[in-house]
Design brief:
The chain is an alpha/beta fold. It is built from 8 helices and 7 strands. The chain starts with 9 loop residues before the first strand and ends in an 8-residue tail after the last strand.
Length: 251
């Protein structure tokens, strides 16, 4: 038996068709979980399911639609018969100086990264409680630790995700549910590739500050997801764990 055995458990991973979400889904599948990924891009969903194999499924979902979270939980329960692990990974970013961010841009980032996460977690609560070993894994950011000039809305949303995670941990511990946040550093994904185009100095500055001297890889998230979802992490709740190659340790 694997130390982080997840056989018989059902996981829902939003934004699980690429990047960090797919990296976490790989770890959950490797430990025996039945994974349902949710994403807007049907083609990417199908590609991810083919790569993950096993008893993996995908659902098309637009997290900005207020009706989506409850519907998504209903679909997972209908297909898989339960929900034990919720990974809130869907997110977006708009890179602008604070004084240039419009109300509409602010709303898109906060609604995607925070409000939709809250709605889905709220909708999932009865199933997670019924599981008796529910796990909520929220994807925050190292920008919940410090700020950068070009991502004010993103930083605000991810800081709020960390505090929301702590509230979940305090409220739901009696129900056997743990809630933890993962704080990714600079990871090589489609989102950060666009950031490197927008900020030409970013690549060199990240390598200079990162003790590991590399960008992170989505594969770096397989283990932390499996651990936090497992029984071995039953007494770990309310934490915010950086996965950043040591970037956030540097002053």
């Amino acid at each position: 038996m694997s130390l982080f055995d997840l056989t018989g458990r059902v996981a829902l991973v939003t934004g699980g068709n690429g990047g960090i979400g797919l990296g976490m889904a790989r770890g959950l599948v490797a430990c025996g979980a039945r994974v349902v990924i949710a994403g807007r891009d049907t083609a990417k969903n199908a590609q991810a399911v083919a790569e993950l194999g096993g008893d993996t499924a995908a659902l098309k979902a637009d997290m900005l639609d207020p009706a989506t979270p409850a519907k998504l939980v209903e679909q997972v329960l209908a297909q898989a018969g339960g929900l034990d692990i919720l990974v809130n990974n869907a997110g977006t970013n708009i890179r602008k100086a604070p004084h240039l961010v419009t109300d509409e841009e602010w709303a898109v980032v906060l609604d995607t990264n925070l409000t939709s996460l809250m709605r889905l977690t709220r909708a999932a609560y009865p199933a997670l409680k019924a599981s008796g070993r529910g796990r909520v894994i929220n994807i925050g950011s190292m920008l919940s630790i410090f700020g950068v000039s070009f991502s004010p809305a993103y930083g605000a949303s991810k800081g709020a995700v960390v505090q929301y995670t702590k509230s979940l941990a305090a409220a739901w511990a009696a129900d056997g549910i743990t809630a933890n946040a993962i704080l990714p550093g600079w990871i090589d994904t489609a989102l950060t590739r666009r950031a490197r185009q927008d900020v030409p100095t970013l690549h060199d500055s990240v390598l200079a500050r990162t003790p590991a001297k590399r960008w992170g890889d989505p594969k770096d998230f397989a283990g932390i997801a499996a651990f936090l979802a497992s029984d071995e992490a039953a007494f770990v709740t309310g934490t915010a764990i950086p996965v950043d190659g040591g970037y956030s340790t540097q002053g």
